[in-house]
Amino acid sequence: MKKKRHVGSWIYSSLIFIFLYAPIVVLIVFSFNESKSRGKWGGFSLKWYKALFQNDVIMESLYNTLAIALTASIIAVIIGTLAALGLYYSRRRVRNLIMNVTSVPMLNADIVTGISLLLLFTFIGLKLGYLSLLLAHITFNIPYVILSVMPKLNQLDKNTFEAALDLGATPLQAFFKVILPEISPGVVTGFLLAFTMSIDDFVISFFTTGADAVS
Predict the structure, then answer these.
(1) Are residues 62 and 91 in the same domain?
(2) What is the C-alpha to C-alpha distance for residues 122 and 135, in angstroms, rounded to an integer?
(3) Residues 209/128, Cβ–Cβ less than 8 Å
(4) What are phi and psi of 44, to 5 degrees?
(5) CA dihedral of 48, 53, 54, 55, whole degrees rounded to 10
(6) Is residue 214 part of a domain?
(7) How far apart are CA 103 and CA 187, in angstroms?
(8) pTM of the model
(9) Residue 11 sits in which domain range?
(10) Are residues 44 and 60 in the same domain?
(11) Is the domain of 115 the same as that of 197?
């Protein structure tokens, strides 16, 4: 009976993965198709990739996207990690309140966040462009970093930091040599999440970028 259940679970999981990833595999294969027709195989060719890399507009957009995503992710990781540390050492009531507020941007529809940030930038007189786009990406990435770092902080013993100070370490040394190595998996996860979300986002970028920016 257990064998049958195991085989059934394996078949079910395999079908799910095939359903999810088969279209992606087909797209990848047909990206090397010589023919312009998507339903007809005309032979293997790299001409579409060659045309892609020779398109200045697309390459500029790709460069700007990667630059914004990388910069926003790094800044979001720094701010989010420090914010998580502050929440970790704050009172439970304050921590729970701020964590609930932090989750709001993640639950909001992208169009709501995009319009809200657009109204904010317009209200403070910030010209739409690369700066507004960068600030927008940092804003919606910070919650992902906080929620990635907090579980690792919760696994720490709160006395660890104080013990390092008692042994003669400065607060900065205690953080980099004791706290950071312990929470580094959460920090890396937060960075990867922030980078992925930044690369994937279009709606918020559409509302917060200027007409001259290519992204």
Answers:
(1) yes
(2) 13
(3) yes
(4) -75, 135
(5) 90
(6) no
(7) 18
(8) 0.79
(9) 2-48
(10) no
(11) yes
